[in-house]
């Protein structure tokens, strides 16, 4: 069985950017043996949220390569040049391409590495290969769409699997219901419903705002309730000084803070990334609601300070039990029961899938602490390097799950792979377990 220098799990933007960084570093030299395993049958990035008129929230300059290597042929600018649209894009006078166009850019970049990606394979387990008392390699087991099990050996592993849909506990019993679905499968699910009469959208972030507006235009007579726990839809703060939190050099500042300072910083900037739509879409929603009042209609409602206490599938509809958090416990209208044809969850994502994938390595990785270069801390007798992409927000800052630092991060991971030829890594001395995870400098738990 071939031993790969690097096996990547997932082939979304983070690992596509890593493939680019590896190719550019090894240009003219001996390339590392790499393979990426992706469970989707082809490249796809938030395919079910490619809504009409939806645009990126970050500058196109924060693409897969520019901030690491502006002369790379994989920049968004060169993509436009090769597609023959560079001058027309300039005439748009925007930093924010449509989501459709940026998805096409990402797919274009990924297409250059199809010989290094096995699509349609889902990784089910990563297990250690022990030789002479040391973990020398990692065995990665995957399952194809036909059910065939495959195995590969690797000297290093990078996990870039993105997030998994966050389903609030109250909706957990309704998993699989065609009437309740997460934004991550919005387009494929909404196409199954011809003319719902009443829809609830849960959440107050960018996805929820986009879902509200898409449903408003898709079903001209449908009533939509936007349900949130907050007092208002709050806009993202994209002012220049706040935006510095997403700069690559800010990662150093965050990472080297003591735990309590880092936690306070993340809380302070939380609304720069979460539950904070663009101001333009907030103003559009407000205008829609205002025009309703002008016409004396009550088609849509913004239910602020409301929490979903219960959800029940009635067969032909979903009943939500709501609590008005601003009403006193004795108020007659504190709780209400509403029925909806559809409930759409704009409730974000969780970042815990890497823990499940690395569960078999628990004796060596423990609570999973990472160093500054995103490498999981392991004892000396564990020789493979394990790197995490997009799972280090608590240690590296809010930018970790975004495209903002992707290009720079992959350059740092590539450099961390470089000190010695990966095929000839000397064995670590037996009996030397290295620093404990508890005492590794700045190794924050994630």
Automatic annotation (TrEMBL):
EC annotation from Swiss-Prot or TrEMBL: 1.14.13.195
Cofactor requirement: FAD
Pfam families in the record: Lys_Orn_oxgnase
Pathway listed: Siderophore biosynthesis
Keywords, comma-separated and alphabetical: FAD, Flavoprotein, NADP, Oxidoreductase
Keyword Oxidoreductase set for record: yes
Molecular-function GO terms, alphabetical: oxidoreductase activity
Superkingdom classification of source: Bacteria
Family: Belongs to the lysine N(6)-hydroxylase/L-ornithine N(5)-oxygenase family.
PANTHER family: L-ORNITHINE N(5)-MONOOXYGENASE, MONOOXYGENASE
Protein name listed in UniProt: L-ornithine N(5)-monooxygenase
Species in which this protein is naturally found: Cupriavidus pampae
Lineage of source species: Bacteria, Pseudomonadati, Pseudomonadota, Betaproteobacteria, Burkholderiales
């Amino acid at each position: 069985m071939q031993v790969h220098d690097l096996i990547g799990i997932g082939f979304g933007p983070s690992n596509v950017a890593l493939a680019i960084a590896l190719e550019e570093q090894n240009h003219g030299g001996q390339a590392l043996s790499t393979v990426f395993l992706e469970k989707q049958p082809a490249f796809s990035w938030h395919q079910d949220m490619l809504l009409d008129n939806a645009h990126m929230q970050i500058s196109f300059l924060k693409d897969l390569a520019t901030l690491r290597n502006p002369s790379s042929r994989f920049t968004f600018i060169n993509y436009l040049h090769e597609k023959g649209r560079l001058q027309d894009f300039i005439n748009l006078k925007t930093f924010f391409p449509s989501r459709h166009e940026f998805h096409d850019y990402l797919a274009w970049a990924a297409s250059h590495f199809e010989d290094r990606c096995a699509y349609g394979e889902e990784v089910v387990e990563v297990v250690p290969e022990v030789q002479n008392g040391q973990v020398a390699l990692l065995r990665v087991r995957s399952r194809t769409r036909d059910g065939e099990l495959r195995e590969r050996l690797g000297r290093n592993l990078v996990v870039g699997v993105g997030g998994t849909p966050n389903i609030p506990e109250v909706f957990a019993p309704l998993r699989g219901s065609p009437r309740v679905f997460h934004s991550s499968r919005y387009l494929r699910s909404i196409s199954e419903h011809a003319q719902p009469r009443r829809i609830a959208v849960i959440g107050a972030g960018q996805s929820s705002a986009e879902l509200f507006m898409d449903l408003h235009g898709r079903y001209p007579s449908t009533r939509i309730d936007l349900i949130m726990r907050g007092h208002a839809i709050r806009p993202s703060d994209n002012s220049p000084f706040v935006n510095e939190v997403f700069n690559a050099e800010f990662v150093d500042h965050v990472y080297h803070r003591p735990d309590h300072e880092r936690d306070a910083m993340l809380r302070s900037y939380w609304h720069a990334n979460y539950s904070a739509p663009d101001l333009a879409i907030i103003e559009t929603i407000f205008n829609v609601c205002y025009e309703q009042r002008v016409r004396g209609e009550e088609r849509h409602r913004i239910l602020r300070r409301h929490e979903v206490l219960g959800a029940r599938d009635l067969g032909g509809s979903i009943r939500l039990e709501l609590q008005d958090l601003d009403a006193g416990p004795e108020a007659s209208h504190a709780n209400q029961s509403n029925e909806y044809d559809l409930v759409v969850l704009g409730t974000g994502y969780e970042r815990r899938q890497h823990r499940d994938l690395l569960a078999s390595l628990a004796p060596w990785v423990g609570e999973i602490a990472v160093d500054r270069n995103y490498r999981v801390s392991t004892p000396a007798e564990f020789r493979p390097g394990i790197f995490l992409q997009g799972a280090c927000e608590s240690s590296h800052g809010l930018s970790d799950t975004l495209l903002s630092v992707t290009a720079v991060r992959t350059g740092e991971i590539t450099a961390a792979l470089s000190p010695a030829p990966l095929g000839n890594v000397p064995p670590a001395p037996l009996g030397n377990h290295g620093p404990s995870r508890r005492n590794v400098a700045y190794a924050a738990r994630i």
